[in-house]
Amino acid sequence: MDVRVFETKAEMGQAAALDAAAILREAIARKGEAHVIAATGASQFEFLDALTATPGIDWSKVVCFHLDEYVGLPETHPASFRRYLMERIVARCHPGAFHFIAGDAAEPAVEARRVGRLIRTCAIDVAFVGIGENGHLAFNDPPADFETDEPYLVVTLDEACRRQQLGEGWFPGLEDVPRQAISMSVRQILKAERILCVVPDARKAPAVRACLESEVGPERPASILRTHSRTTLYLDRTSASLLARGET
Length: 248
Fold this sequence. Notes:
Layout (H helix, E strand, L loop, with lengths): L1 E5 L2 H23 L2 E5 L6 H8 L9 E5 L1 E3 L10 H13 L3 E3 L8 H13 L5 E4 L22 E5 L2 H9 L12 E5 L1 H5 L3 E6 L5 H9 L17 E6 L12
Parallel strand pairs: 1-10, 2-3, 2-6, 3-5, 6-9, 9-10
Antiparallel strand pairs: 4-8, 7-8
Helix pairs in contact: 1-2
C-alpha cells in the first residue's frame, strides 16, 4: 500500500483526482472504456469535486458501479447514496452507464443478486473507497466477511456506523438511520485493478491507525487493503495524526 499524506483536504482531493483521471484515461485508451466503483459520503466531497472538474476524461466511455446503499431509502431521501451520486457524478459528467443499487427494492437480497450479476461481467479498473470511523470498508462493518465471493451483500449496520451517519448530518436522529444496507463485499472490492482510498478528518485517525498498524483482520475491515498491491491511501494531516512517524 502506498500511503500519501497532504496538509489539507483540498490538496488530498486534488492529488487523488489527478491519479484517478490518469487511470480512467489509460483504461479508455487501452480497451475503449473504463469500469469504476464509486464511493460516497462526506469523505469523498473534495475528491469528487476535483475529479469531476478534471478535463480530458471521456465520461461517455466510463461505466460506474455503486458501492453501497441503505435498505429502504428512496432515491429522493437526502441521505440516499443514489441521490448523492446523481448529483455529484451523473449530473456533472454524464457517464456512459451507472449501475445503481435500488435500496428501496421490495426484496433487498434479490437486488443484491441483480447488481452482483452485472459486476461479475466486468473487470474493474479502479475502486474509489473510504474508511469508516469504525474501520469499515463500504458498509462491511466489523467483523467483516472476508470469505464470501458474492459481489454484494445485505448487511446489518452496527451502532458506530449509524452514529457516524448521524454525526455527518445525513439524518435528524439515530432512530432515522437505517439498520441495513446493500454493500459491495470485501472480496469484490479487492478485485479492482487499482484502489484509491480517500480518508480525511481527525475523526478517522483512530481507524486509520488501526487499519495500518494493527493486524489485518475482520475486526478492522479496511486493514484488508494492505493485501492489495495497487492500493493508494490518501490522508490529510489530521487523519494521519496518530500514525507512527514511519507511516507518514
